[in-house]
Amino acid sequence: DKGNHRHFMEKEIYEQPEVISHALSHYVDLADHTVRPADVAIDFKALRGLAISACGTAYLAGLVGKYWFERYARLPVEIDVASEFRYREMPLSVDQAALFISQSGETADTLASLRYCKDAGLKIGAIVNVKESTIAREADAVFPILAGPEIGVASTKAFTCQLAVMASLAVAAGKARGLISAEDEKDLVRHLAEMPRIMSKVLNLIQPQMESLSRELSRFKDVLYLGRGTSYPLALEGALKLKEISYIHAEGYAAGELKHGPIALIDENMPVIVIAPHDRFFDKTVSNMQEVAARGGKIIFITDEKGAASSKLETMATIVLPNVAEIIAPMVFSLPIQLLAYHTAVFMGTDVDQPRNLAKSVTVE
Ligand code: M6R
C-alpha cells in the first residue's frame, strides 16, 4: 500500500524519520544516550580489522561505515564490492571480522563473499533488512536494520537505516575499544537521537525546491556528483540513484579526484552536484567548486547554513540544510539526493518503482 504517495519510493523516502528512529532504539538507549553493547558474537575489543563487502547501495553504505569504524573505533577496514571481494583471494586472518550488508539478505555475490570469509574462520556479522534471509541465517551476529519492507527497486530507507546501524555500531566498537569517553558517547548518541526529528524537518523544507530543480536537471544528459570524506560515498550514491531511475548518465567522484581526469568533461552541459556540509573538508571542496565554476560548469550546491553563508560562488541552485553534527550528516544529506533523483524520474515519466532491467534482489552472479 502506497498510502497517499504516488510511488513506493516516495513513501519509503518519507518513512525514513520513523524507521530510523525504530532502528536506532534497537542499538542505542535514546533516553540515556548510551550505546547498547554490540552483539557478543563479535568481540570488537579484540579485533585487528574489519572486512566489509556488499553490492550497490549497500556497498556505498559500507563505504560510509569504513570512515566511521576507522575514525571512532580505530579499526582498519577493507571494503570491496562483493563481486570482486569473492574472487580477490584476499589474505584474511581470524583476528579480523567480516561484515556483510544486504537489504534483501539474498544477493548472490554478497552471500558468496560471506561463505569465503566463513571458510577462512572469520566471525561473520550481517546487516540485513530481511531477518529470515540466507545471509542472516549464515551469520554469527545479525544486525537488523528494521526498515520494514522496501518495495521500490531504488534503495532509500534501507540505505539510511544501514547507515544508522553502522554509526551506532562504530560508536559501540569505539567504546568497547576504550577510545570513546562516556562524555563523547553521550554527545554522539544525543546527535543520533536527534536525527529523526531533523530528517522530518528537512523533508518538509526541501520538497518544493527538489521538485522544481528536478525539472531543470531532467534536461541534461550527464551529471557529475562530488564529495569528500563521508560525502564521497554519498556522491557515488547520488549518481547511482539518478542513473538507475531517471536513466540520466551520472558519475560520482571524490572531489579531490576532479583534477585527475573528470575536470576535462566540465562545460555548461554537465551540471556538477557538490555535496558539502560545513565540515573539516569544506574549504577544500569549495576550491574544487571554484575550478568547476571557472570552466563554466553549472553547480548544484548541497550544503548547510554555515556552508551557504561562507561560499560566495554563483550556483545553479543551492540547497541549504540545517547545520548538523558530523555523525548524522550522511543520513541527513541523503534526503536531497534521493528526492532529486525521485522527482527527476517522475518528471521524465520513467517507471520509478520498477526501473528497466533491474531487479530488487539479485540472486544470480
Ligand atoms: O539486497 P541488497 O542490499 O544486497 O542489494 C544490493 C543492490 O542490488 C542494491 O542496493 C541496488 O544497488 C539498488 N537497486 C540500489 O538502489
From TrEMBL:
<protein>
    <recommendedName>
        <fullName>Glutamine--fructose-6-phosphate aminotransferase [isomerizing]</fullName>
        <ecNumber>2.6.1.16</ecNumber>
    </recommendedName>
</protein>
<dbReference type="GO" id="GO:0004360">
    <property type="term" value="F:glutamine-fructose-6-phosphate transaminase (isomerizing) activity"/>
</dbReference>
<comment type="function">
    <text>Involved in the production of the root hair deformation (HAD) factor specifically on medicago.</text>
</comment>
<dbReference type="GO" id="GO:0005829">
    <property type="term" value="C:cytosol"/>
</dbReference>
<feature type="domain" description="SIS">
    <location>
        <begin position="40"/>
        <end position="179"/>
    </location>
</feature>
<comment type="function">
    <text>Catalyzes the first step in hexosamine metabolism, converting fructose-6P into glucosamine-6P using glutamine as a nitrogen source.</text>
</comment>
<dbReference type="GO" id="GO:0005975">
    <property type="term" value="P:carbohydrate metabolic process"/>
</dbReference>
<keyword id="KW-0032">Aminotransferase</keyword>
<dbReference type="GO" id="GO:0046349">
    <property type="term" value="P:amino sugar biosynthetic process"/>
</dbReference>
<feature type="active site" description="For Fru-6P isomerization activity">
    <location>
        <position position="360"/>
    </location>
</feature>
<feature type="domain" description="SIS">
    <location>
        <begin position="213"/>
        <end position="355"/>
    </location>
</feature>
<dbReference type="GO" id="GO:0006002">
    <property type="term" value="P:fructose 6-phosphate metabolic process"/>
</dbReference>
<dbReference type="GO" id="GO:0006487">
    <property type="term" value="P:protein N-linked glycosylation"/>
</dbReference>
<keyword id="KW-0315">Glutamine amidotransferase</keyword>
<dbReference type="GO" id="GO:0006047">
    <property type="term" value="P:UDP-N-acetylglucosamine metabolic process"/>
</dbReference>
<keyword id="KW-0677">Repeat</keyword>
<keyword id="KW-0808">Transferase</keyword>
<keyword id="KW-0963">Cytoplasm</keyword>
<dbReference type="GO" id="GO:0097367">
    <property type="term" value="F:carbohydrate derivative binding"/>
</dbReference>
<comment type="subunit">
    <text>Homodimer.</text>
</comment>
